[in-house]
Amino acid sequence: MLRTALTPRWLGWLAVVVALAVGMVWLGIWQYRVAEANGVADALREANERPVIALTAYLQPHTAFPADGSNQRLTAVGHYEPARRVWVLDRRLAGVEGYWVLEPFVVEATGARIPVVRGFVTSHPAALPPSAGSATSTGPGPSATLTLVGSLAPTEGPGTPRRPPQAGEVAAVSVGALLNDWGGEVYNAFLFAISETPDPGDVGPAGSSAAGATGAMERVPPPLTTGGLTLRNAAYALQWWAFAVFVGWMWVKMVREDYRRAVAREGDSAPTAPTTAPTAGAPL
Question: Cα(276)–Cα(120) distance, rounded to whole angstroms?
Fold first, then answer.
């Protein structure tokens, strides 16, 4: 069969089959990516359509994280504690490496703290040159009483940073580890700040150029921890991959049939030995 497969005719068809299979595999990958993108868009739309709930009505200190809590938008009244601010290592925003600025927010109604990702910086004051400073706040200041709207996220694991954390740095948003430093009552979750009223004035919108050497913060868009695939596009992806397998199988099948026909033709054209009846009296 290998001799048949290596003939110019079938090698030519093999090139066509490989080209078709590669194209079909690529189309399947494209449809899969479309399914992922549509799933993220659906999750984002669902998250934005969910009503904003008071933190105190949705979650209590030290209680388990709600099963449907990811991306839930919550509101709370209280104040930040800038003196307890920490920087989370190994974070990226729009392809740029830097740090999350994490501060405890003291909820006025309960007195408990919840970690809040206030923004992103490319460097923090401990790593800046002496002449550089933090952004000037034009608002009432982050320690004033304000109304916070944030997107809920579950606590992270301990993390494995690329370098050991220095003073004021942490490897992950781990409520258990933060509790050792912050003390008191804490919520078993953290928030990505969406808005603060009144605006302290020390955080710029995501994508702004403020978070450069000055150490100013950019808002961190809440990452979608829930998502999925749209079934229609995922089915299209599976169909394209099945077609790629099918064309390869058809080439093998046709080569096998051609080989069998060639064997049959060789059997029909092979000379046969003459058969004669023995003569009388001849020795057997």
Answer: 100
